[in-house]
Amino acid sequence: MIPVMILCLFVARVKSSEFSVDTVVAVSVGVLDTHFSCCVFLMCHTHHQGLREDWQIAALSSSFSKSRVMSVLLSGEVFLSSKREFCSRPLNVIRSSDHTIRRYLQQVMVQCPLCLFDKAVSASDNFRRARWLMFMDSSTSVEEFFAGIHIPFGSEFLVAQWSAQRVQLSLTELYRVHYASPLQTFCIGNWTYNGGLSWSSVPFFTRRKDLKGIAIKAAVIPYNPYLTVAKYRDKKPVKYAGYLTELWNEMERRMNFTTVYVAPRDAVFGFRLDNGSWSGAVGMVVRKEVDVGISFFAYMVDRMDAVGFLPPIWNVKLMVHIKQPGMEVSSLSHILSPFVSTLWGAVLSTIIVLTVILSTTWYMNPEYKVDAGHTPYNLYESWLNVFGAFCQQGHDETPRTGASRLVYITTYLIALLLFVAYSASFMSFLAVRRRDMPFADFNGLLQDGTYKLGVLSGSARVEFFKKSNVSTLKEVYRKLIHPGAGNLPSSDVEGLQRICTREKYSYVVSDTTLRGLGRSAPCSIIGVPQAYYSITASMIISKTCPYKRIFSHHVQEIKRTGILTRIEGTAWPPKYTEILDDPPSSVTLETVTIFFIVLLIGVVTSVFVLVVEFGLHKLRQSFQWVTF
Ligand SMILES: *[C@@H]1O[C@H](CO)[C@@H](O)[C@H](O)[C@H]1NC(C)=O
Ligand SMILES: *[C@@H]1O[C@H](CO)[C@@H](O)[C@H](O)[C@H]1NC(C)=O
Ligand SMILES: *[C@@H]1O[C@H](CO)[C@@H](O)[C@H](O)[C@H]1NC(C)=O
Ligand SMILES: *[C@@H]1O[C@H](CO)[C@@H](O)[C@H](O)[C@H]1NC(C)=O
């Protein structure tokens, strides 16, 4: 059931219409079905009601209910003044075309200016969202009737008129690009008694794709490297370049409009001031000084209340970045780290068990036990043999008994397997670069306390920390950002430079921006992996802008068809791949120092032991010499 609201307007008596009740109902229901609307408002008369109008209303509503459409009677004053939403997109049906209707339309269409050139905001959203269907006498000319009536670009206004022989009713769509431009018409469908409604297959956005070269005012916030100023005249930017400019040019080309660029005085993205007004580019859009804001504006709840956003074009992680700390120095833990401690334990016990077994097999064969000239495999000798095998050492002698030989083979096989596993794991361990990061996340940053945190001034990043509900982030704002709030970097380039020039400075920036600007920074900069948050950003547009829908549509199209990716490929400064790939990591001397230290200790110790043994030997000899 579709509810029909019969909206009674204060309209004077009209001459009898050339449309029968059945025709009006059939066409309205047809349009209703095509538009998936949920209700119909019928324009009728409240005052000077005669029997005739009463009868017609009754006939109409009974006719609608026969088509399973429910009707409700509602007065025009209630509808206009009500803030309630009766239904999402009602269909307003106007049954005749005389001068009272004309006057009424003039009034209503000015009351709901879907047009930013008029600064007044619509009194009633109910009218703004409505679709219109008007039945017009064939003797009236559409152009003449609508002269001076503004049909906003975003609205859908249909006029039904009989053709010359009264065999078919043609439905024409009307709109103006803006209030001073000529009326645009498009034949959208035909209706006949027998055939019903035949609807044009041309979609809405194709019918409205040409903005006829109108000038759109845009506030621009240069945002290196995505949007840069290419040319100044009288110290004022007149030409822009970069990724966002290419995207905007593509939109201009598709929709046929031109742009007047305006630079906001305070040159910030914009946030809500304490007194409720907005600063920066957002403020200009809110105050309707401009239609759109070009740059990357992060989606934020309070911004979305104030302005409209185009579909997302930029999804990034904003990460805390710091000056690259030195490489981790190698330590003893490097030698042990390829295996976990339990595995080391297992290796050790294997050595012990194999030693014991080797000795046991030797003791159990008495005939080889005392064999002059051969190595005895007692415990004291065996552990060196087994340990040697685990160090990949061979032996000049093998045991003679089969049992002992089997233990030998087992030992070598296990040792080989462990060695291969250790080497593989150790190599991959060396290949990964490790740095001594002073902290790993926001909590660490807070606890460390020595680093200052910078964010782009006047951007959503300040607001993110300020308005966050997470206590850590609130603290980060209170302790690290707020003290320097008066002196925040005004661009990402400046922020990156501060990282390099100041002691212990961290800065929140996206990795794509860093890729674009990293080369201009005088030092190496690295992100703190866990200290980040994600944002979605796009361009902003006035909430009441009639072109909002078509702009959104074209951004979607540009994304869907891969043009955005192409623009990214050509305009992303500098070339993506160059910076994206880190240079292959190489193993430096520092990383493997520990092995040389172990070697050195071994050599020194053995030399020392040799000298001691030598000395003892000499001492014993001289002692013997003294004795005898
Ligand atoms: C409606 O009829 C006219 C004339 O007969 C024709 O030119 C037009 O293409 C028709 N429109 C649709 C949407 O069928
Ligand atoms: C763009 O609009 C202008 C002004 O109305 C018009 O002359 C021109 O033909 C249009 N261009 C395209 C490609 O439609
Ligand atoms: C809010 O404050 C700003 C500066 O603090 C001022 O420029 C602006 O006019 C104020 N707005 C209102 C509505 O008071
Ligand atoms: C954050 O806190 C405010 C006020 O305490 C509350 O209105 C809001 O819903 C909270 N937001 C989230 C995401 O929890």
UniProtKB/TrEMBL annotation:
Superkingdom assignment: Eukaryota
Principal localisation: membrane
Membrane topology, record value: Multi-pass membrane protein
Localization per record: Cell membrane
Residue ranges occupied by any Ionotropic glutamate receptor L-glutamate and glycine-binding domain in the UniProt entry: 225-287
Pfam families (UniProt xref): Lig_chan (PF00060), Lig_chan-Glu_bd (PF10613)
Keyword S-adenosyl-L-methionine: no
One of the protein's GO biological processes: detection of stimulus involved in sensory perception
SUPFAM superfamilies: Periplasmic binding protein-like II
Keywords: Cell membrane, Glycoprotein, Ion channel, Ion transport, Ligand-gated ion channel, Membrane, Receptor, Signal, Transmembrane, Transmembrane helix, Transport
Signal peptide as annotated in the record: 1-16
GO cellular component terms, A-Z: plasma membrane
Keyword Cell membrane (UniProt): yes
Residue spans crossing the bilayer: 343-364, 406-432, 592-612
Entry GO MF terms: ligand-gated monoatomic ion channel activity
InterPro entries named among the record's database cross-references: Glu/Gly-bd, Insect_Ionotropic_Sensory_Rcpt, Iontro_rcpt_C
Entry similarity comment: Belongs to the glutamate-gated ion channel (TC 1.A.10.1) family.
Name of the molecule in the record: Ionotropic glutamate receptor L-glutamate and glycine-binding domain-containing protein
Species, as recorded: Zootermopsis nevadensis (Dampwood termite)
